[in-house]
Design a protein that fits this description.
Layout lengths: L2 E3 L6 E3 L25 H32 L2 E2 L7 E2 L3 H8 L4 H30 L6 H9 L6 H11 L6 H6 L12 H26 L3 H9 L4 H12 L1 H16 L3 H7 L8 H10 L5 H31 L1
Antiparallel strand pairs: 1-2, 3-4
Amino acid sequence: MSTTADPDLGTPARAGTAPTDPSPPTSRRRPRRRTPRYSRGDRLTLIAMAGIPALIVLTFVWGPALASVGLSFTRWNGVTPAQFVGLANYEQITTIYPPFWPALRHNLIWLAVLLLVATPLGLLLAIVLDREIRGSRFYQSVFYLPVVLSLALVGFIWTLIYSPDQGLLNQLSGSQVNWLGDPDVNLWAVLVAASWRHIGYIMVLYLAGLKGVDNSLREAAALDGAGPVQTFLRVVFPTLRPINVVVLVVTVIEGLRAFDIVYIINKGTNGLELLSVLITNNIVGEASRIGFGSALAVILLVISLAFIITYLVQMLKTEDR
């Protein structure tokens, strides 16, 4: 039996056998070079656009928030070294600090009014203006105008309206009510002013969401015999879930961070106590009780997160079903 050498592989081949496959073995094939999805410049741009804002948020938002949690367990006036006192600040806040419980009650009332009154009114205005009624743009501008005003300016405007001597409200009603001086009514009077601004904000958010709803959904519901109310509750409103999350977060933040409007009226005293005012008075006031004020800030943070996290968990459970 004679053998010949394979010219390609350099190995002997038996005579009479079929010629070998000239293509190289599979193991020797060069792997295909994958084209990168993003160029180096794209990756640098993405890192800059996402990394820089994240770094700013961590530095100026979560950094101070975590620092406040740590300082809440200390007694510190900003000059002398901080002393660790454990839960003493929280104990003093809940037992021997008289403004705390009224301020907490006022914050919860504030939040409830924005959630249960102002937000539904904003939604109602958005539904009405989404129907392209005559003068819709004009009404949108009128209702949105208070949003561009700061709460300090809103407080100044309503101070003139509520003035007991020459205020617009007493002049029209013929009464002599001290709307901002009477602790039995001044919180509700200020809530009207805050709601006036909040309604316009919510209206714009929901109006943007309603513009994105596919009209074919409404038409299909109408063909099935659903009325306007049923169409909205069962078809349109469920599609606004992302907007609802934004509205909830905005409302909770607006309700718990309220500060400037009461501070411009009477510095948050005499029936207008709020947690934000107490935090400011303790941290930047003459007492400089930074640890004590930080404990108040942590309580406010926990209340804010409790509302938002509870709603997000419920929403995620609904989506998983």
